[in-house]
Every structure is written in structure tokens, then in C-alpha cells.
Amino acid sequence: MTRPPFAPVSERDIRIVSAQLGRRARNVVGIAARCTCGAPTVVSTAPRLSDGTPFPTFYYLTHPVATAAMSFLEAAQVMIECGELLAADPEVAAAYERAHHEYLADRESIAVVPEIAGISAGGMPTRVKCLHALAAHSLAAGPGVNPIGDVALERSSWSPDVCQCPDYGVDVPDPADPTDDDTRSRA
Ligand SMILES: [Zn+2]
User: Region (Disordered): which ranges (predicted)?
Assistant: First the structure.
């Protein structure tokens, strides 16, 4: 788990995230959580993209097995259960609101973007709208910060402690990349 300030992001990290997303990862400011194998599971994205677009989702779940597990939980109505938990338990509701403010503070430590002021992710501070975003926050912040993200991870068939990474194909030389000398020396 990692919150800002982040260590520099390596080209290998970017390649893995790009493979996870199926498109070139852009505007990545940090790797907020990693699998036991070291592969990124959560990326942090600049609050304002290079094209100027405001981007509220500071913590984004990229791991394909983790995202599938969250989609499964959403289909299994776990968001409704979590919404009921928020409504029934004032302590959970208060913790969830604190999580919202922590999320905003983390993001604003990178950049303050007026268009998205007060807007975090996943439905915080009062609703449960996206388990992917909430689990991503829990993975970045560690347990005990986001109570709903914690529930999602507890219920998930994917665990950050067990590597279920596919072969991202990032350790083979990229023929389009002139810095990959391997390709040319073999050719
Ligand atoms: Zn892994």
C-alpha cells in the first residue's frame, strides 16, 4: 500500500499497467498498490490529465483478476448490502466519510483541480456506487481506512496476498522499442 508522495514509476510498471488496461497507460503519477509479485494492482492518475480533463478517480484498480472479482461482487448485489450497512451503522458511515476526506487529501497533494473539488470516487461519502474504486482505495490506504473497500476485499475471491497475475508479456523485448537491444542482436 502506498499513498503520495510516490516513488518514480518505471517503464516496466507502465508496460504492465498498459497490458492490464489493454491500452497505453497515461498520466500515471504513482503505483499505489502491488501484487506480491510486484506487478501494479492500483495506479494513481493525475487529477488533471495532460489534455486538461479533470480526473477524480485518483486510485484505479488495474489488476484484471481483481477487477473481475469486484464486478462479480457488484453483480451479486454486494453494493446494496454495503449501502444497507452504511445506513444501519453510524460508525461505519462516519468512517466512510473520513475515507472520503482522506481520498481527497491524497489527490490534492498531487494537484488541486477546482472542477472536481469535493468529488472523490465510488460513491463516497454517502453512497456505494463502485466497488472497484473503493477496493482500490483500500489497497492504497491499507485496512481500516475505507470500511466499504475493506468489505469488498474481504468478500473478494482475489487477494492481494496471492499472485494470480497472468503473463503480461512485458519481459519479452518489444520490437518497436529501439531501447530493446535484444531484438536487434538476435535478428
Ligand atoms: Zn502477481
Answer: 167-187
Residue 5, in any domain of the structure: no
Grid cell listed for 152? 469488498
Q: Is residue 6 part of a domain?
A: no
User: 16 lies in which domain range?
Assistant: 11-186
Cα of 38 from ligand 1 centre, angstroms: 6
Q: How many domains does the chain have?
A: 1
State pTM to two decimals: 0.90
Span from the CA of 41 to the centroid of ligand 1 (angstroms): 8
List, as ranges, residues with CB under 5 A of the ion ligand 1: 35, 37, 39, 163, 165
- Is 153 part of any domain? yes
Q: How far is the CA of 118 from the centre of ligand 1 (A)?
A: 34
Long-range contacts of 88-96 (CB under 8 A, 24+ apart): 92/147, 92/148, 93/126, 95/146, 95/147, 96/124, 96/125, 96/126, 96/146, 96/147, 96/148
Q: Cα 140 vs. chain centroid, distance in angstroms?
A: 7
> Within a 13 Å sphere around the CA of 95, how many CA atoms are in the beta-carbon half?
18
The three-state secondary structure class of 179 is coil
Task: Check residue 63 and report its DSSP letter.
Answer: -
- Give alpha helix (H) positions in 32-110: 64-75, 78-88, 90-108
Q: Residue 2 falls within a domain, yes or no?
A: no
Write out pLDDT tens, residues 21-51: 999 999 999 999 999 999 999 999 999 999 9
